[in-house]
Amino acid sequence: MLGIGPRTLALAGASLALLIGPNLRASEPIDPERFEALHQLIQPKADEELWLQIPWETSLWEARRKAAAEGKPILLWEMDGNPLGCT
């Protein structure tokens, strides 16, 4: 380590917060007329949601059984950690 103790780090962090804090502001509110246009802009288009038409299996056993019967591979989409991304 650089020989900087926790007390020095806390003091530096507090000083930085005091210097920067007053300059931080929330963005301006969105006008209701502009909101609808922005809302439409961020909505997925129909061709961006084709994956929703796939009959996904939530049971690995059922997916293995069905894949074996149809002679098809399995795409396993698996995630580790908290489902909210808070790992």
Describe the structure.
By secondary structure, the protein is mainly α. It has a domain at 46-79. Helix content is 43%, strand content 0%. It contains three helices and no strands. The chain has helices at 6-20, 32-42, 60-70. The mean pLDDT is 83.
Comma- or semicolon-separated keywords:
87 residues; mainly alpha; 43% helix
Based on helices, strands and strand pairing, what is the structural class?
mainly alpha
Q: Low-confidence stretches at least 5 residues in length (pLDDT < 50)? A: none
Total of helices: 3
User: What gap, in angstroms, lies between the N and C termini?
Assistant: 26 Å
Mean pLDDT: 83
Secondary-structure element order, N to C:
HHH
Q: What global shape is seen?
A: flat
Number of strands: 0
> Into which percent range does the helicity of residues fall?
40-55%
The portion of residues forming beta strands comes to under 5%
| Biggest beta sheet attributes | none
Cα radius of gyration in angstroms: 25 Å
